Amino acid sequence: MTEQTYNQAILALAQAGLAALAQRESSSNAINTPAAESHFLCSWMVQALKERRFSKLVAEDLNNWIRDGRSMGAGAQLPNLLSRIEQQYLAAIDNSDIGASLQAMLNSLDEEQWLVIVDCEVTTKLKLDSDGRNSLIISVEQYEQHISQGQLLKPVTLYVRGDEQLLAQLAAEHQLLLSPGNKKASLIKHHKAYKLYPNNQQPSLALLVA
Q1: Pairing label, strands 135-139, 156-161
Q2: Do residues 52 and 110 both lie within one domain?
Q3: Is 188 helix (H, G, I), strand (E, B) or coil?
Q4: What's the pLDDT band for 185 if we cut at 50, 70, 90?
Q5: Which value, in Å, is the radius of gyration of the alpha carbons in the chain?
Q6: Where does the pLDDT of residue 195 fall: very low under 50, low under 70, confident under 90, or very high at 90 and above?
Q7: What distances in angstroms separate CA 201 from CA 9, 35, 70, 74, 75, one per listed residue?
Q8: Which pLDDT tens digit goes with each residue over 31-45?
Q9: What would the pLDDT profile of 135-162 be if each residue is shown by its tens digit?
Q10: Is 210 domain-assigned?
Q11: Residue 186 burial (10 A CB sphere; 0-12, 13-18, 19+)
Q12: Helix, strand, coil: what percent of the chain each, to 5?
């Protein structure tokens, strides 16, 4: 039996939650307000976690969303969150040309007047003088050795300074799943580090479009 990946587990969770919400809303006496929907999904997640309906790979996500649902109510936007996960993961899960998709995204950023650098070795702390331009940097070693014939062979780190939502939107348009930005892990000042994995196999929830 093939072990379920995180991508498969989070997509299964999102789709099951949306299906449960749709079934509830089909009831003639259901109150379909944002607060009521959030309360329903939060309770559904509590029960799903208690009954271990889903892979332990997504247990932390469930705990986080339950906490948000309890503290924020409708503000947690749980239905919207599950919809975004379903949309992005369905598009990305079958993308077998990650290297080619990454190159296409870099071309798009270049067209948006970003400073895209892929010919610099990044092995220690660096600073980029970009005159305020948005920038994306990939170490030349990773760019040349981790990508071959449109395939991503090993993980690649993207160092980014710029509008994170624009990056998220472009990644989604090119069917790529990026890790959330991590400023502490970045080797380049004022940049965040994002990871792209072979076959889009992120080990945890990817950066989502707002």
Answers
A1: antiparallel
A2: no
A3: strand
A4: very high
A5: 19
A6: very high
A7: 11, 33, 30, 31, 29
A8: 778 888 999 999 999
A9: 999 999 999 999 999 999 999 999 999 9
A10: no
A11: buried
A12: 50, 15, 35
Residues 57 and 124 in one domain: no
pTM of the model: 0.92
- Distance CA(45)–CA(50), nearest Å, equals 8
State which of 74, 92, 110 marks the end of a domain. Answer: 92
102 plus 188 within the same structural domain:
yes
Domains identified in the chain, total number: 2
DSSP 154: S
What is the DSSP secondary structure assignment for residue 117, as one 8-state letter?
A: E
> Is residue 34 located within the same domain as residue 80?
yes
Residue closest to 177 by CA, chosen among 100, 94, 97, 89: 89
103 & 88 share domain:
no
| Alpha-helix runs per DSSP H in 93-149 | 98-111, 140-145
